[in-house]
Amino acid sequence: MKIFKKRTKKKNSGKAASLPFRINIIFIVVGILFVALLTQLAYLQVMYGSKFKAEVNRSDTSVVNGNVQRGMIFDSTGHVLVGNSAHQAIIYTKGVNVLTSDMYKTANKLSQYVTVPTSSLTHRQLADYYLSDQDNLAKVEKSIPGISGYSVDAKYNKAVDKVEKYPASTFSAATKNAATIFAKMSSAYQLSTVNIKDDHVSTKEVAMVGEHLADMPGVNVGTSWSRNYPNGRAIQGVTGTVSNEKSGLPSDRVNELLAQGYSRNDSVGQSYLERQYEPVLRGTKSQTQIVLNSDNQIKKEIKKYGGQKGDNLQLTINAKFQKQLQSLVHSAESGAGGNSTGTYAVVMNPNNGAIIGMAGVDRNPKTSKITDNVLGTINSSIVMGSVVKGAMVSGALMDHVITPTNSTLTDQPITTGGVKKSSWFNHSGHANISVDASDALQVSSNSYMMQLAMKEGHFNYVEGGALTMKPSVFNTMRGYFNQFGLGVKTGVDIPGESTGLKGASGEKHIGSALDLSFGNYDAYTTMQIAQYMSTIANGGNRIEPHVVQAIRGTSKDGKLGTVKATVMPKVLNHIDMTKAQRDVVKTGLYRVVHGSNTYKTGGELDTIKPEISAKTGTAQTFYNGNETVTLSLASYAPSTHPQVVVALAMPNLGVNAESNNMQLAKQIYSAYWKTVQSTSTVK
Predict the structure, then answer these.
(1) CATH number of the domain at 99-189, please?
(2) Which interval of the chain is the signal sequence (predicted)?
(3) CATH class of this structure's domain 319-681
(4) What pLDDT digit, counting tens, does each position of 563-582 carry?
(5) Got the DSSP string for 408-476?
């Protein structure tokens, strides 16, 4: 027994000795793991702390963008052409993970205080609102045979189909009002803001909504802006239009604009200057940081950036003169009658391309209805007639088929291939007279221009013989015309400009080359006529026309601020003519108005002061099978130091129309010197 006890004691003693050793091992392992954990935490904190912190912030905070006032458009004198009207608005900001049932309750509550137009409410929107009430949804689904066999989505679609077929009388006006509000709320993205009502919001509505804001999560009273036009909407033909909250982003550009940070219901420039200068006019949205709690409820709003109103455009157009010009053009067209289809006018500075005014109207000959169409000056192509003869003479001088000292030809009817063409004063050939290039412009000799064309085509004219010129003569003449801006885009800073229209120029159309020479074949825009005459007036520089003068900020009092960018004159090309050659053309244009020849065509204009130089135009045209005439005019003043160009066109007048163009020109010059520039500033 003693031996047994001794052995037991040794065994227990061995177990007791191993226990501390094992515990120590465990402590050592735990210690190593703890050190490893601390090391890893330190590593993560140092190396990735900022990243994880940003990740946490991103999940707990969001940024809401708010709209700002759009930049305005001013005229050359600082008067507002396109402004903004501020309106009180009822707005809704959609929260995070907002349930449809929550919006349904809010819409019903808000509809008690606000009445909105319901004309745009669709059957689908009305059905979605109605079925947002779970009792209504259950009742409708119960009435559909075999509904239990469908999926949840299919059940809902079946219910929508059924409700959409309900008669309109099923729903009260109050229900439709609430449904429209609900539809607008539903259209909002998470943490985006939509206008529930932004027009004709009454004081009572603002007060009632403000009093119950706590009961309507996301609803608030805000401000919205819409465009206004102090000088009338005719200027929209230049400035363009802006979409509204209702229409949203243009469907053809929606993806492009969404990628640029727009919301679907944002206002955006839709056309012309509003669209072309959208990045300038839109401004920078405000940014508010939204802090959310664990239930995705907004617990704090922090204004990070107040936003920046859009910059302003200052135009070269004089608002008062523009209004007068549009009125004069409208009055001229009102008295035209017959098959007249419109009247267009452009007034510009020939030395820098600044457009001071551009006006246009269209007329429906069947109904006599006249509508504003300012852009007709850049996109309506018109056979202008003799007004282009200055370019024809210039081309002949540059082609050296005539010279400043040797340019005399006999005006006589031109007969080729059995076709007779003549000048307006010499149809019979009894008034054959010798004229030089300047006098040919003065009397508007068609015969002279046709002979120049034949010389440029290296063709020796024989009375009654066949016209065997090569078709390359078309390119020769058009090449010179293009240098002045006729038949090519002027480069005006308004989208939608036309290049004009070219007639056929094959060998079988060679006879039309003669018509081209005196302006009775190709078609040009009124803006091209203005650029062409400006090029002559300023000594040979074809300058790009422009309506935007500068981009400017906004001062503290809301008026035009500092200049941020200025549009500089852009010379597209220079006409390679000597001073002697240019003087031939300028002398001819001066004689059109002030010459002594019995057949001068612009004598009625000699009463205009300061004196002007001009070229009138008459084209024989047809409209709907009826013979018509198109009257045009291109001019500049003063004759010695040109500061303004007036170009106009009146297509498809009655065949007896004679001086409509000159009467309108006199009225335009009178308005210009009274409104835009004092005659005392003329050298």
Answers:
(1) 1.10.10.1230
(2) none
(3) alpha beta
(4) 999 999 999 999 999 999 99
(5) -EEE--EEETTEEE--TT-SSSTT-EEE-HHHHHHHT-HHHHHHHHHHHTT----TT------THHHHH
